[in-house]
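Researcher: Let's do a round of design. I'm pasting the structure tokens now; please hold your answer until I've finished.
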């Protein structure tokens, strides 16, 4: 990567898991009735839905983490939280005219495997009691290597789960120590091999580049472990240093971090090594073997991106259950209360615990479509009337500078991201982000783009 381009474009930028991005959502969230009406509209178009379930508890604090979590060793919190999730699910079921067909489930956290396997079984069977399961479904969950048991893996496998995502981050002991990630290489190996033995068909490793004390030698070492264990997918994320949002990241300083060209070199090295070993780069920060459904989705142009990351397909309705979960009816976003106690109080009172949200207008919907196309397919087209809004012209003006730098190619009604432009995908999306340009941030909102 050219160092002049890195210096020029390595600015704060959203990760574009949604458009508009959360800081630019409406100041007042949609009311519960308005949200339910949008859920019903989405459901009427397609009764196959996705579920994201947030399980926020962790036994210890990993200092790098930017997720919404509650640190506790008190496992008495499990049962009442599962009860709250099932009550919230029932609130949605009460509004739907027919049984939903569940296409996708992802259990995220926090640490889903903080929960006993029996509690996870109670949760999933409770959800399935009043729903159907799509024939071609994809159910997945995140695991912490040192808290995942054979019971976790077997019980969820029996319930239809076939993909696990293992939070590796890095294999080096000194890096794990500084980020307070309490696990070993043996933990990762054990969970991976056990999942394979049980029958899981897709295993993902989360690996982070840019962690404190991380060097090229660590990237080489991580790749050797990946070669040996052969996960089907790799999420190779950039560490987002946002201590103004997550104070736990002040456990180390910027002096400990690889930054700028040094940090980007870690990604370029990792990408080259993964590609040497048969992994294909997919979208932003993701890799998969050609046998994995994510690769197939990229090839068939059905790849989708939402708050769960990249997925092989798109459902019109995604319902988020649990504290801080985000739901998406395509025309509306809502987010649940982040504080567990407030979330549970609202659910107990019979209300969907909406704390923020956004109703997308026609302009939002058009820009959202283009940003999704760019993030998933590295191209987009606005020749059809439903794909054009005059605000696109403002974005095209801003994109001319990126075209001049060889990052993309502009045609009369088409945009194509070039190979050299892929590391700058967030900058390209940012150029057509109308809301951001109308109200530029005056404080730090996002992590660095590269």
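Researcher: That's everything. Go ahead.
Model: Designed sequence:
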């Amino acid at each position: 990567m050219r160092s002049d381009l890195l210096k020029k474009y390595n600015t704060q930028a959203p990760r574009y898991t949604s458009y508009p991005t959360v800081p630019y959502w409406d100041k007042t969230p949609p009311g519960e009735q308005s949200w339910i009406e949008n859920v019903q509209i989405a459901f009427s178009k397609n009764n196959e839905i996705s579920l994201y379930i947030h399980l926020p508890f962790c036994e210890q604090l990993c200092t790098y983490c930017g997720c919404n979590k509650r640190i506790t060793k008190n496992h008495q919190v499990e049962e009442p939280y599962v009860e709250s999730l099932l009550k919230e699910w029932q609130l949605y079921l009460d509004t739907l005219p027919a049984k939903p067909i569940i296409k996708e489930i992802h259990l995220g956290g926090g640490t889903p495997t903080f929960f006993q396997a029996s509690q996870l079984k109670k949760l999933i069977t409770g959800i399935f009691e009043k729903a159907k399961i799509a024939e071609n479904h994809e159910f997945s969950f995140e695991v912490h290597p040192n808290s995942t048991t054979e019971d976790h893996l077997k019980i969820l496998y029996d319930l239809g789960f076939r993909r696990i995502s293992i939070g590796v981050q890095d294999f080096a002991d000194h890096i794990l120590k500084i980020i307070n990630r309490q696990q070993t290489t043996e933990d990762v190996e054990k969970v991976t091999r056990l999942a394979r033995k049980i029958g899981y068909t897709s295993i993902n490793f989360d690996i982070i580049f840019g962690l404190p004390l991380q060097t090229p030698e660590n990237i080489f070492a991580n790749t050797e472990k990946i070669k040996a264990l052969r996960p089907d997918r790799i999420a190779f994320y950039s560490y987002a240093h946002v201590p103004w949002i997550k104070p736990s990241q002040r456990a180390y300083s910027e002096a400990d971090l690889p930054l700028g060209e040094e940090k980007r070199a870690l990604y370029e090295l990792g990408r080259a090594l993964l590609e040497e070993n048969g992994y294909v780069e997919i979208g932003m920060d993701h890799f998969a073997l050609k046998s994995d459904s994510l690769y197939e989705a990229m090839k068939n142009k059905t790849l989708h991106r939402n708050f769960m990351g990249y997925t092989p397909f798109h459902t019109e309705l995604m319902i988020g259950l649990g504290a801080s979960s985000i739901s998406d009816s395509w025309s509306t976003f809502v987010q649940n209360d982040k504080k567990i106690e407030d979330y549970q109080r609202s659910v107990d009172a019979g209300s969907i615990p909406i704390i923020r949200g956004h109703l997308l207008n026609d302009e939002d919907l058009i820009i959202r479509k283009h940003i999704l196309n760019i993030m998933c397919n590295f191209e987009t087209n606005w020749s059809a009337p439903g794909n054009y809004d005059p605000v696109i012209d403002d974005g095209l003006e801003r994109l001319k500078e990126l075209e001049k730098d060889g990052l993309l190619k502009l045609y009369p009604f088409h945009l194509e991201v070039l190979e050299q432009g892929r590391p700058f995908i967030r900058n390209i999306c940012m150029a057509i982000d109308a809301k951001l340009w109308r109200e530029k941030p005056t404080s730090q909102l996002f992590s660095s783009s590269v």
